[in-house]
C-alpha cells in the first residue's frame, strides 16, 4: 500500500511540474535572427528558466539553424562539436535538467555578431506551483 501511495505521489508531482511549465519564444517577437541584432543575453536575463520549461526557436530554416554547444564552443563560436543540431525553423527544446545551456547559429559570422544564447535552468518549481 505504501508503494502505491508513493507511486501516485510521484505521478502527481510530475504532473504539477509540467502543468506549470513555461514556454519561451527565444527573442520574443523577433525570434531567432541576426536582423537588427537582437540582444539574446538581455532577453535571457529577464527570464527564470526551470526544469520542465520549453524553448521555441523560430527562424527562417533556409538561412539559420540552432546548435546546442558547450560553454567553450559558445564563447568561441565553434561549430565543430555540437551536442545537438536543430534546423526545422520552429524547434521546440524541452528543458529536462538543471544547469547552463548554450545555443548558437552554425553560421560563425552570425554567432560572432551575437546570435547566441546562454540560459541557466533552475531545478526549482515555478512559484505558481508552490
Describe the structure.
This protein is of the alpha/beta class. It has a single domain, classed as Immunoglobulin-like (Sandwich), CATH 2.60.40. Helix content is 27%, strand content 27%. The chain contains four helices and eight strands, in the order αβαβββαβββαβ. The chain has helices at residues 2-19, 40-45, 71-76, 108-112; strands at 23-25, 49-50, 54-58, 66-69, 84-86, 90-94, 99-104, 116-122. The strands form two sheets. The chain has a five-stranded mixed sheet. The two termini are 27 Å apart. The model is unreliable at 2-18 (pLDDT under 50).
Quick tags:
8 strands; alpha/beta; metal-binding; 130 residues; signal; 4 helices; five-stranded mixed beta sheet; Immunoglobulin-like
Please write the CATH class name: Mainly Beta
CATH architecture: Sandwich
Query: What class do helices, strands and sheet pairing give?
Result: alpha/beta
State the helicity in percent bands. 25-40%
SSE order, as H and E? HEHEEEHEEEHE
Q: Work out the strand percent.
A: 25-35%
| Distance N to C terminus | 27 Å
What's the number of domains? Answer: 1
**Which regions are unreliable across 5 or more consecutive residues at pLDDT < 50?**
2-18
Discrete helix count:
4
Mean pLDDT: 87
Largest sheet at a glance?
5 strands, mixed
- At the fold tier of CATH, the topology name is Immunoglobulin-like
Overall 3D geometry?
globular
Radius of gyration: 17 Å
Task: Report the strand count.
Answer: 8
What spatial order of strands do you see in the largest sheet? 2-8-7-4-5
Q: What is the CATH superfamily classification? A: Cupredoxins -  blue copper proteins
InterPro entries: Cupredoxin, Phytocyanin-like, Phytocyanin_dom
Signal peptide: 1-21
Domain Phytocyanin: 22-123
Organism: Lupinus albus (White lupine)
